[in-house]
Design a protein that fits this description.
Rossmann fold; about 150 residues; EC 4.2.1.10; 3-dehydroquinate dehydratase activity; amino-acid biosynthesis
Protein backbone atom coordinates (compact mmCIF):
# COMPACT_ATOMS: atom_id res chain seq x y z
CA UNK A 1 0.00 0.00 0.00
CA UNK A 2 1.22 3.49 -0.80
CA UNK A 3 2.19 5.94 1.92
CA UNK A 4 -1.10 7.35 3.18
CA UNK A 5 0.41 10.20 5.20
CA UNK A 6 -0.63 13.70 4.28
CA UNK A 7 0.34 17.09 5.65
CA UNK A 8 -2.03 20.02 6.07
CA UNK A 9 -0.17 23.33 6.23
CA UNK A 10 -1.94 26.54 7.24
CA UNK A 11 -0.29 29.90 6.81
CA UNK A 12 -0.64 33.35 8.31
CA UNK A 13 -3.71 34.36 10.28
CA UNK A 14 -5.36 30.95 10.06
CA UNK A 15 -4.66 30.58 13.77
CA UNK A 16 -7.21 33.42 14.09
CA UNK A 17 -10.09 31.44 12.58
CA UNK A 18 -13.26 32.02 14.55
CA UNK A 19 -12.12 35.54 15.48
CA UNK A 20 -10.87 36.98 12.20
CA UNK A 21 -13.60 38.30 9.88
CA UNK A 22 -16.25 35.72 10.84
CA UNK A 23 -18.50 37.00 8.05
CA UNK A 24 -15.95 35.68 5.56
CA UNK A 25 -14.25 32.83 7.41
CA UNK A 26 -16.98 31.66 9.78
CA UNK A 27 -17.08 31.14 13.53
CA UNK A 28 -15.16 27.85 13.68
CA UNK A 29 -11.56 27.73 14.86
CA UNK A 30 -8.42 26.14 13.46
CA UNK A 31 -8.81 23.46 16.13
CA UNK A 32 -12.33 22.79 14.83
CA UNK A 33 -10.93 22.40 11.33
CA UNK A 34 -8.27 19.99 12.48
CA UNK A 35 -10.78 17.88 14.45
CA UNK A 36 -13.10 17.72 11.44
CA UNK A 37 -10.25 16.73 9.13
CA UNK A 38 -9.01 14.02 11.50
CA UNK A 39 -12.50 12.51 11.52
CA UNK A 40 -12.79 12.77 7.72
CA UNK A 41 -9.33 11.31 7.14
CA UNK A 42 -10.22 8.26 9.25
CA UNK A 43 -13.11 7.58 6.88
CA UNK A 44 -10.63 7.62 3.99
CA UNK A 45 -8.05 5.61 5.93
CA UNK A 46 -5.54 8.46 5.65
CA UNK A 47 -3.11 9.70 8.27
CA UNK A 48 -2.80 13.46 8.50
CA UNK A 49 -0.57 15.86 10.36
CA UNK A 50 -0.96 19.59 10.81
CA UNK A 51 1.38 22.57 10.79
CA UNK A 52 0.56 26.25 11.07
CA UNK A 53 2.77 29.30 11.06
CA UNK A 54 2.50 33.00 10.45
CA UNK A 55 6.10 33.01 9.19
CA UNK A 56 7.07 32.45 5.58
CA UNK A 57 10.32 30.67 6.42
CA UNK A 58 8.50 28.14 8.61
CA UNK A 59 6.12 27.30 5.77
CA UNK A 60 9.08 26.77 3.45
CA UNK A 61 10.72 24.48 6.03
CA UNK A 62 7.47 22.49 6.43
CA UNK A 63 7.31 21.97 2.65
CA UNK A 64 10.97 20.88 2.45
CA UNK A 65 10.62 18.53 5.42
CA UNK A 66 7.56 16.86 3.86
CA UNK A 67 9.64 15.23 1.12
CA UNK A 68 10.04 11.54 1.81
CA UNK A 69 7.63 11.64 4.74
CA UNK A 70 4.28 12.61 3.19
CA UNK A 71 2.47 11.59 0.02
CA UNK A 72 0.91 15.01 -0.43
CA UNK A 73 0.40 18.45 1.05
CA UNK A 74 -2.81 20.41 1.45
CA UNK A 75 -1.64 24.03 1.64
CA UNK A 76 -3.49 27.17 2.60
CA UNK A 77 -0.70 29.72 2.31
CA UNK A 78 -3.02 32.59 3.24
CA UNK A 79 -1.85 35.95 1.92
CA UNK A 80 1.50 34.41 0.90
CA UNK A 81 -0.44 32.76 -1.94
CA UNK A 82 -0.47 36.07 -3.78
CA UNK A 83 3.17 37.12 -3.58
CA UNK A 84 5.53 34.54 -2.07
CA UNK A 85 7.85 33.39 -4.80
CA UNK A 86 9.88 31.74 -2.04
CA UNK A 87 6.97 29.42 -1.18
CA UNK A 88 6.37 28.85 -4.90
CA UNK A 89 10.02 27.83 -5.31
CA UNK A 90 9.84 25.56 -2.23
CA UNK A 91 6.87 23.71 -3.73
CA UNK A 92 8.67 23.37 -7.06
CA UNK A 93 11.77 22.03 -5.29
CA UNK A 94 10.14 19.00 -3.69
CA UNK A 95 8.77 15.79 -5.10
CA UNK A 96 5.52 16.02 -3.12
CA UNK A 97 2.24 16.97 -4.80
CA UNK A 98 0.58 20.05 -3.33
CA UNK A 99 -3.06 21.12 -3.52
CA UNK A 100 -3.71 24.79 -2.81
CA UNK A 101 -6.83 25.45 -0.74
CA UNK A 102 -8.71 28.49 0.49
CA UNK A 103 -11.73 28.78 2.75
CA UNK A 104 -13.27 31.69 0.85
CA UNK A 105 -13.76 32.09 -2.88
CA UNK A 106 -10.66 34.14 -3.61
CA UNK A 107 -11.92 34.90 -7.12
CA UNK A 108 -15.00 36.69 -5.74
CA UNK A 109 -13.01 38.91 -3.39
CA UNK A 110 -10.49 41.73 -3.78
CA UNK A 111 -8.61 41.74 -7.06
CA UNK A 112 -5.21 41.06 -5.46
CA UNK A 113 -6.55 37.77 -4.07
CA UNK A 114 -7.37 36.47 -7.55
CA UNK A 115 -3.74 35.87 -8.45
CA UNK A 116 -1.88 32.91 -7.02
CA UNK A 117 1.84 32.73 -7.63
CA UNK A 118 1.89 29.19 -6.20
CA UNK A 119 -0.90 27.74 -8.37
CA UNK A 120 1.38 26.95 -11.35
CA UNK A 121 3.44 24.54 -9.23
CA UNK A 122 0.51 22.83 -7.48
CA UNK A 123 -1.64 20.03 -8.87
CA UNK A 124 -4.77 22.12 -8.33
CA UNK A 125 -6.58 24.81 -6.41
CA UNK A 126 -9.79 24.49 -4.39
CA UNK A 127 -11.43 27.58 -2.95
CA UNK A 128 -14.71 28.84 -1.64
CA UNK A 129 -16.03 25.79 0.20
CA UNK A 130 -14.90 26.55 3.75
CA UNK A 131 -13.67 23.46 5.59
CA UNK A 132 -14.90 21.36 2.67
CA UNK A 133 -12.09 22.84 0.54
CA UNK A 134 -9.66 20.82 2.66
CA UNK A 135 -11.86 17.71 2.55
CA UNK A 136 -12.06 17.92 -1.22
CA UNK A 137 -8.27 18.09 -1.41
CA UNK A 138 -7.92 15.01 0.80
CA UNK A 139 -10.55 13.24 -1.31
CA UNK A 140 -8.51 14.00 -4.44
CA UNK A 141 -5.38 12.51 -2.87
CA UNK A 142 -7.37 9.46 -1.74
CA UNK A 143 -8.84 8.97 -5.23
CA UNK A 144 -5.43 9.33 -6.87
CA UNK A 145 -3.99 6.66 -4.61
CA UNK A 146 -6.80 4.34 -5.64
CA UNK A 147 -6.05 5.14 -9.28
CA UNK A 148 -9.24 7.15 -9.68
CA UNK A 149 -9.78 10.73 -10.69
CA UNK A 150 -12.69 13.04 -10.02
Amino acid sequence: MKNRNFLVINGPNLNRLGKREPGIYGAHTLEDLEEELVSFSKELLLDISFKQSNNEGDLIDFIHEAEGEFSGIVLNAGAYTHYSYAIRDAIASVDVPVIEVHLSNVHAREEFRRESVIAPVTIGQISGFGFDSYKLALQVFHNQQKGETL
